[in-house]
């Protein structure tokens, strides 16, 4: 007799709990990266770090190709049918089969590129290791767990795998020539996650060939896939182009510059990831009021927290680079200053695209946004990178994201009217000016650790005081009132 699939966990989980799980997941990535990256960057050196990141950019590009639109469409479609067991099985099996077909094509093309492109001959061993990630991509099925909103499982599994990775790095990566082993361990994280996910899925669904129908999904899968590939042309391809054009050391500078921005942005991405399935569900119910409330909350959270973080990270870029990577990475300072405003800008883009356009299935508009940004990124790469190297790559990324914002805002405004809280944005920008002035002088403290910690403490206190007593932000006031009540209750 077939084992009964457990569906008890399909009951909707509160957004607050999902956000907490996602933030824990993002923070764990932040903590583990801050633990391993300073060690690895010092042991391997800027050139070997650049080699690993260059090869990884190629691998990631083929992972984008193998996945196409599954990471967006999968969440959306699973969220739509998660309360119907029969439809859930059919939907999961169809999407997985579709994903597996494109992954096979990606593997074939990857092998041809690896053996036919002469410039990649010296990287062939690392590329062979990276191939395993592409092969395992269909089995990752992260989209399924996000669609059923099982962020608890995603968080716990990721914490276990990351802990194994961190311990392995410190145990086995000991000298400069261990960069291949370091790359293998990084790939191993994805492989372990895929194995865990595929094994655990039997609690909810089973893959069956019978009933598979990919025709309802192909159009969105390809359109959203094109969106992901176009997006990668000004993100992942940036690193690849820089490696071919300027060498491994410049890749090391650029990827070091993007490291903190990626970590911090992941905290907000954790929030938008939770919002996508919930916004899709609200859209299905035609709950416009509920969607607007979530959008307002999203904008509020981003504005209050990202603007001070951008100010702090730009002013403290030299200190942050030194702490993250040590000596020899001074070339990453200017690219980091250019990149850090993306914490705010990409956050806005995520709200417009992930929380508005994607749940409404405006896939063509999303694709047009990425096409514009990809064109901008491609042209700017050829113009800026040969002369400015890693600084040019940082400018390409910034200009491309500005293009995405302008395009997304135009289409959203055209359809829904003005939804951007411009007044709140300008108020918070004015409020951060005194903070920036004080941070500039605090950053001059000769003791590196004391300077960084003093700046963090001052920034946190300043933001709380300004939001609570000057701007009187409702979300912050409510948060403080909740904390006060809990302390009184304790």
How do you describe this structure in short?
With 490 residues, the chain is mostly helical.
Percent of sequence in beta strands: under 5%
Instruction: Give the fraction of residues assigned to helices.
Output: over 70%
Low-confidence stretches: 1-9
According to DSSP, the number of beta strands is: 0
Q: What is the typical, i.e. mean, pLDDT?
A: 80
- N/C terminus separation: 51 Å
Describe the global form: globular
Please outline the major beta sheet. Answer: none
Structural category: mainly alpha
Number of helical runs? 19
Rounded radius of gyration (Å): 23 Å
SSE string: HHHHHHHHHHHHHHHHHHH
Features of the shown structure:
mainly alpha
Structure explained in plain terms:
The protein is mostly helical and 490 residues long. The protein is built from 19 helices and no strands. It has helices spanning 15-67, 70-81, 85-116, 124-140, 142-147, 151-172, 179-200, 215-232, 236-246, 248-284, 288-315, 317-325, 333-339, 342-357, 363-388, 390-416, 422-442, 448-470, 474-489. The longest helix is centred in the first third of the chain and has 53 residues, at 15-67.
How is the secondary structure organized here?
Layout (H helix, E strand, L loop, with lengths): L14 H53 L2 H12 L3 H32 L7 H17 L1 H6 L3 H22 L6 H22 L14 H18 L3 H11 L1 H37 L3 H28 L1 H9 L7 H7 L2 H16 L5 H26 L1 H27 L5 H21 L5 H23 L3 H16 L1
